[in-house]
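User: Assemble these into one structure.

Assistant: Restating your components, then the assembled model:
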Amino acid sequence: MKKLINSADDVLADALKGIEASDGNVRVDHTNRVIYRAEAKDSGKVAIISGGGSGHEPMHGGFVGLGMLDAACCGQVFTSPTPDQMLEATTTVDTGAGVLHIVKNYTGDVMNFEMAAEMAADAGVQVETVLVADDVAVQDSLYTAGRRGVGTTVLLEKIVGAAAEEGQDLASVKAVAQKVADNGRSMGMALTSCTVPSAGKPTFDLPADEMEIGIGIHGEPGRHREPMADAKSIAKQLVDPILHDLDFTGAPVIAMLNGMGGTPLIELYLMYGEVVALLEAAGIKIERNLVGNYITSLDMAGCSLTLVKADDELIRLWDAPVKTAGLRWGL
Amino acid sequence: MKKLINSADDVLADALKGIEASDGNVRVDHTNRVIYRAEAKDSGKVAIISGGGSGHEPMHGGFVGLGMLDAACCGQVFTSPTPDQMLEATTTVDTGAGVLHIVKNYTGDVMNFEMAAEMAADAGVQVETVLVADDVAVQDSLYTAGRRGVGTTVLLEKIVGAAAEEGQDLASVKAVAQKVADNGRSMGMALTSCTVPSAGKPTFDLPADEMEIGIGIHGEPGRHREPMADAKSIAKQLVDPILHDLDFTGAPVIAMLNGMGGTPLIELYLMYGEVVALLEAAGIKIERNLVGNYITSLDMAGCSLTLVKADDELIRLWDAPVKTAGLRWGL
């Protein structure tokens, strides 16, 4: 294993130092491993929290800032944060208007966020939760009952952050979140495994002439393996299962062509071109897009496609100003 | 070789389709392989052009837009664009106020930009050129007489773009460019080789327990190879040669901790934390920073550090609004 780290045990603690030094939008609670917005609390605003295992950067810490998250709870690499971290974050960011928890559907995350929400309620904080379970690849998975939560999380955090910023109340923010979660679908693929620092070797072996279709963001098994193919064929294998699962015609679509961490941008642009051609042929119009590394899987090579079937409200919220390390516009 | 491409011959042409589809700031001339700003020419503004081999994304095409480049000439992967491309771009963007060519110091780029500048002058366009040669690793290299041009190019394109946007004339824009070029230094390292699509195999072999210090962005040899080390030691091997080359104390510094394409963001943040600690110990204050993939080398794992010794004028230009796929703030 060759990685730019000091030791497998210190990856998260050391990375948090770099995040704090580089990103003027945030402050880091190193004891609880929570990343907060740097500016003072906006009184009366619904607060938005997410969190999960590390190794998916810039998600979630890179999405803390004006117009997006108020706090991100950082677990160790590919490990859920604890209920204590989530409770600390929840009580810290609450302005009295309540807190929305954005939870990706993995068993550990779901259980821990549930426990934190109960404890926060006992402490007098109103908490609502939205569960993201958008991965059409598999029904159940290594770490999940039901679909895995992947790329829609990024788009949801942006849109819901804007709703909170403009002063919507907790019920309304929750409704926006649920609309995004209900209308987002993702599908991923891998050319290589990732290597978890504490394991020291690749999570799985993938022969030099094969790829895995339907991979999860922790290297969980996908749908099947098959011989390496060209970008056009791969794009079709991402687009088809998504369109099979939800009808995206007749609505503005927000698309994300996401890199898994080890794939260069030139390939992501190329893949995006192929995806656009397929969607146009299917009569689907992309109104907004992201191309790049937004929800990664350490050093895995590969990509994923996320489509959110939007409406005028979601597009308006998407376009609202955001100022985070990972997404920034309008400010 | 496993890559998200259709064929080695079509990588650039296909990627340009995706860039055009994703980035509303640009339009693409597919015949000449030039990426232009989408909006109409700003009459009287000095135009800024750069270009080079592809495979370093988001540089340069991802830096076309308001406050940065007016055009980027795209060569094939790791291959200089031709004088014809550069001439076409130069005459297209000129508003009568002249054009600055930003050239990285590689023999092919230098020769072709010189030829294009002469042809443009014959056509009545005033052209000035700034050469970036900031890599402290080696004096001469595989594709270079003199130092290679690397990370300072990114910071220079941002700063000079702002100078042009605020209406500075060609001589003044050139002077700003030269100040950045004179005060920027970089040093890189690699954990793995990159694989050029047309070659189909890694450019070099690097054993599983070794790294290369002083690597170039095309996989050109660096200073030496040595056993893999921890992030602290690697950071020192990047910082020391830069500080040995130029005194950065007493000035505000703009820093970039750049990924080579195959290294995940969590490792780049971690490395940035180590670099900040070393610079603080040396009495050097980072005023602005970038952490991420900005000048890459296809799928190479590794990173580079760039420091620009700035002053109030350069910091002011750095902070000016920019709206490109790769850098965006203030708008």
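The mean pLDDT of chain B is 97.
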